[in-house]
Design goal:
Blueprint: E1 4-11, E2 13-17, E3 22-24, E4 29-30, E5 34-38, E6 45-53, E7 60-63, E8 66-68, H1 75-92, E9 105-112, H2 122-137, H3 144-152, E10 165-170, E11 181-186, E12 194-200, H4 210-220, H5 222-245, H6 248-267, H7 278-296, E13 304-307, E14 313-318, H8 319-332, E15 342-347
Parallel strand pairs: 7-9
Antiparallel strand pairs: 1-6, 2-5, 3-4, 5-10, 6-9, 7-8, 10-11, 12-14, 12-15, 13-14
Helix pairs in contact: 1-2, 2-3, 5-6
The structure holds adenosine-5'-diphosphate (ADP), ligand DP6 and cobalt (II) ion.
Amino acid sequence: MTVYQATASAPVNIACIKYWGKRDTKLILPTNSSLSVTLDQDHLRSTTTSRADPSFTRDRLWLNGKEDEIKDGGRLATCIREMKRLRKEEVEDKNTDEPKLSTYSVHICSYNNFPTAAGLASSASGFAALVSSLAHLYQLPVSASTLSLISRQGSGSACRSLFGGFVAWQMGSDPSGSDSLAVEVAPQSHWPDIHALICVVSDDKKGTSSTSGMQRTVETSALLQHRINNVVPQRMKDIEKAILEKDFDTFARITMADSNQFHAVALDTEPPIFYMNDVSRAIIAVIVEYNRLSIEAGTGYKAAYTYDAGPNAVIYAPKANIKEIVEFIVTYFPQEENSFKDVFSLFGGGRLVGKVP
Ligand code: ADP
Ligand code: DP6
Ligand code: CO
């Protein structure tokens, strides 16, 4: 008996220009473009195994060992349906000898090696790994761009995890979503000196999911409209240029400003959303002071903080500064006080385990 099964991993990506707001909630089309760094998948990743079998009676998914419901018409169902459609069109219709895997139900099992739903982008690595594992299972001859379009319909930020290095999600303008996908701005090898330090302040599940939080922001925040129309378009251009020129001062300034504005927009939501906590804010104060001393000494910015929809800090910095940053973070936030659950040092950039066919 042939076993049809495949496994793939995908890394998380942490945005420097944040995606926050949908213009189409079904297709997951964003209200602004965004830009992120895909982390090295030796650290924070989702690993997903998919299996197709004629004896399975329905599609099922287990996340971290616990079964998750696949709701009809929901995001998981959409991604699985789109992948089965590609299997039929790209493989079975072209070569009728191929087994009709598109007609079998799938069982999917996924693990995250880091906190789930805690603001460390588990939905990004999760949906990227899901579509990648199905692409292997179905032996699809499709590009990372095609998988980006499909994973976007699982979780917006996932479309960026199909690429390594510095990645932009172009918001697109087509109502069908065909031009709303991620593109590589530069590979990790372009600027390998940039490292990311993840400071896990709390691994608790966030109170407001990204999906419901951003929808509330779209409905109630006037500041979001200003951000979408007057702020993000210029920042996208400026940060892409900074990356291409390896201009860390500009990269750091924009990254921190955009994190601040994203959290301001969350606060401008009715009722307000607080993703950062006192420890998050204390880390900001420490980084601001670290940069101030360096700028005064004429050596420019040394580090950039950014926070997703959660209290956990991600600090981007040139490799030479990482040791010093870890030292002062551990000094100011001693582990025994349990301010920090963990500190990881990571390379920026990454790739998928098991290549995308
Ligand atoms: P995060 O900040 O971690 O991305 P979100 O609120 O955006 O938090 O999304 C969390 C949700 O993403 C989870 O509740 C789950 O539904 C989904 N998710 C997380 N990891 C995976 C995974 N490995 N496979 C499939 N879905 C996942
Ligand atoms: C703050 O991609 O998790 O991390 O599309 O509803 O699944 P859904 O939301 P999600 O939102 C990510 C928000 C963010 C910023 C970012 O990653 O760009
Ligand atoms: Co998410």
